[in-house]
Description:
The protein is of the alpha/beta class. It has one domain (24-84). The chain is 52% helix and 20% strand. It contains four helices and three strands; from the N terminus they run αβααβαβ. A three-stranded parallel β-sheet has the order 1-2-3, covered by helices on one side. The radius of gyration is 18 Å and the shape is globular. It starts with a helix and ends with a strand. The relative contact order is 0.16.
Amino acid sequence: MKARLAAVCLVLFAAAPAAADELPIFDAHLHYSHDAWAVVPPREAVAILRKAGIKRAMVSSSNNDGTRLLQEVAPELIVPSLRP
Length: 84
């Protein structure tokens, strides 16, 4: 039983990287509030997301200014998200 489970896990894990390479990466929870802007300016933040292969990112920020800053730089990448 253990050998069979190990074999199934091995097949699943071996197939995972191939499947992951085919799917776009969507960051569904990203914060970009006022304390991050000076450390990582909007253009640099977008460059980091693109370098990581992110195709879309749901962004929220305290008072929404950070979200708007990122969306101005990359409207095709940034999806504004309202958090309660």
